[in-house]
Write a structure and sequence with these properties.
0% of the residues lie in helices and 61% in strands. It is built from no helices and nine strands. Strands 2, 4, 5, 6 and 8 form a five-stranded antiparallel beta sheet that branches. It has a four-stranded antiparallel beta sheet with strand order 1-9-3-7, with no helix packed on it. The radius of gyration is 12 Å and the shape is globular.
């Protein structure tokens, strides 16, 4: 299932069940020093999907992964962080 407009305010992760295809991470709001990363699970390890889906300000990026488990990781945030994220499939 895509992640629809989840607001993150504290450090941690939000799991996303994925179809293993092309998608986009979108984020907006008050970052206050936060970093939002999209990660996929390889074996028992969570691995960053790369710089296109590592955000320190509002924006977005595309990704492709064969993995079925994704998560959004929020780290290094300040006291006024309020970031809304979405992970959506792209159809080509």
């Amino acid at each position: 299932m895509p992640l629809e407009n989840k607001t993150l305010t504290t450090t941690g992760t939000t799991d996303v069940t994925w179809n293993g295809k092309l998608g986009a991470l979108l984020a907006s709001g008050t970052f206050d020093g936060a970093t939002v990363k999209l990660q996929h699970k390889i074996g028992s390890n969570w691995v960053d999907l790369g710089p296109d889906v590592t955000l320190t300000s509002a924006g977005g990026g595309q990704f492709i992964t064969p993995q079925s488990e994704l998560r959004v990781d929020l780290s290094s945030h300040g006291g006024s962080t309020s970031v809304t994220v979405a992970v959506k499939p792209l159809v080509v």
